[in-house]
Amino acid sequence: METELKEIEKEVMEEGPEKAEEVKRLPPWTKQITVRGVIASILIGSMYCVIAMKLNLTVGLTPNLNISAALLAFLFIRTWTKLLQKAGFVTTPFTRQENTMIQTCSVACYSIAVGGGFGSYLVGLSRKTYEQAGVDTEGNSPNSIKDPGLGWMTGFLFVVCFVGLFVLIPLRKVLIIDYRLAFPTGTATSVLINGFHSQGDKSAKKQVRGFMKFFSMSFLWGFFQWFYTAAEECGFSQFPTFGLQAWKQTFYFNFSMTYVGTGMICSHLVNLSLLLGAVLSWGLMWPLIRLRKGEWFPQNLPENNMKSLNGYKVFISVALILGDGLYNFIKVVYFSMISIYLKMKEHRQNLKTADGDEQSMAVDELKQDEVFIRENIPLWIGVTGYIIFAIISIIVIPLMFPELKWYFVLVAYIMAPSLAFCNAYGAGLTDINMAYNYGKVALFMMAALSGKENGVVAALVGCGVIKSVVSVSCILMQDFKTSYFTMSSPKAMFLSQAIGTAIGCITAPLSFFLFYKAFDVGNPDGEYKVPYAIIYRNMAILGVEGVTALPQHCLQLCYGFFAFAVMVNMIKDLSPPKIGKWMPLPMCMALPFLVGAYFAIDMCLGTLIVFVWHKIDNKRAELMVPAVASGLICGEGLWTLPASVLALAKIKPPICMKFFAP
């Protein structure tokens, strides 16, 4: 490593002394993590925890907020330093390295809320989800229940999430420098951060004003709406925009600024896929299947019973998700293996034919390589940390969940490094974090191996163990890519990720219990449906019982939608780009099948705003869309905190605005 670093330093000196001087002027890693940065990270990360938790518990879809977090970090610290300067205080300059650290810490924090299982496998263990899956369903054992608890959830997160921080440290140079993987999200975030610190105050002021304007509007709108929600199905969120018949099939605009802002961040394809899924399910399939009541399922069963219409909703969603997930899992693993082979072959050829050509590397790349290698994280930290946290997990998890035997956890952690590498490599190529799909593979394996009595709990917890390790390690690699381009220290990046993960393991359960205590979480007819909880529990039941758990004729429909998901992906990959770009995303189509059409309509309004804005003024749209979308999401998201406090205090709104047919 030292020899390699000396060679790079020599090349930088030969290319330009001013570049070498710039590298030396970079703040040391201990100066890149600041007290104000940690405070900003806690505030931003906690706010995004609440926002992500609401999205998780309502629709199950959370956009990538990395760029938004980088923007908020810039706006927060820049505004803070300006205020202090006006007050006559001397402040430390705000650097892109500090911006990167705040973004990393914030993302690590809210990622626990997104991927910690609160909207899927952890809530899937609850009594409410057990009852929703059907108390008489084969394989749905009454012993497979563990209701949410602040203590065990926080402990579980600390145990499983920190393992992922250490698993890929020995391979960070291979993934970032040797293979030069793109990691598109990490690269895009670094481009944004570098742009913030080179674009000047004029653009920054526009973004600050835009964010504050739409943040205030969104917060006040959330406050105004609250007055009209005295009971269930009251208020603007239930406004029958397209008429009462459409409203009964969940087709209405529910005036959620969070969903509109989310639609502005998500791609046009994601939003249109959601709308297509809503039209196909609530506009066509569910009304037709409802007509078969008495033939396909008993007349006297309520629709939310798993042997009634709800069974079709859940299992067809599972079929779409599994079809899409399995295809992409195989594709990413295949292309990753091919790419690794070609890289190794190319490396061997370069060793044989090495000459002066490699000296022509761009000066910026040499400079970035030097910073990344110079701030080396010792190998022993990665190995020791992984072994210690894995041993703790092997001891603690079976004590929390006796259904999951210690030797299953041991095998999971033996396999985890190779799975984490494959996932990180695939994400570096495609920007797709396949952690949930690795988790689903573990879910079905644990369900099949653990038997009927223990299968459901073992499957859901085993899914969480693998998914957490693979996901956290992938997020860390994306952040390492950001640090590479912003020339931030990997040591500071790793420490920021660890701080953010620790904060997230505390704030995510607290955010969950804020909603859990204040609202009816898990009610299939309410706002907080937690759609993935019932999906994951039923996947575990499928793993235990097989297809006997399905309602009548549901298996044939599942075969059809599984094949549809695979076929759409194949057409997308094999057809010309002008055809493939129009293929919908089956994973996104599956969400409205359970949740409803309303959020897809809101998100499509967001995508329409972005589309029109780019047509009218593309340059201004590129500058302002992230700020406006972040303002809309954060404003209404922040209103959730006082709304929850009011609900906990039993203070009800004074008005119920509701519509009835004449």
Helix and strand layout, with pairings?
Elements: H1 2-15, H2 17-25, H3 29-32, H4 35-58, H5 66-86, H6 96-115, H7 127-133, H8 150-166, H9 172-178, H10 184-196, H11 201-226, H12 244-248, H13 257-265, H14 268-290, H15 309-352, H16 363-374, H17 379-400, H18 406-430, H19 435-486, H20 490-518, H21 531-545, H22 554-574, H23 577-580, H24 586-595, H25 598-616, H26 618-648
Helix pairs in contact: 1-2, 1-16, 4-5, 4-6, 4-20, 4-26, 5-6, 5-10, 5-26, 6-19, 6-20, 7-21, 8-17, 8-19, 8-20, 10-19, 11-26, 13-25, 13-26, 14-24, 14-25, 15-18, 15-21, 15-22, 15-24, 16-19, 17-18, 18-19, 19-20, 19-21, 20-26, 25-26
Explain what this protein looks like in three dimensions.
The structure is a single chain. This protein has 662 residues and is an all-alpha fold. 73% of the residues lie in helices and 0% in strands. The chain contains 26 helices and no strands. The protein has helices at 2-15, 17-25, 29-32, 35-58, 66-86, 96-115, 127-133, 150-166, 172-178, 184-196, 201-226, 244-248, 257-265, 268-290, 309-352, 363-374, 379-400, 406-430, 435-486, 490-518, 531-545, 554-574, 577-580, 586-595, 598-616, 618-648. The longest helix is centred in the C-terminal third of the chain and has 52 residues, at 435-486. It starts with a helix and ends in a 14-residue tail after the last helix.
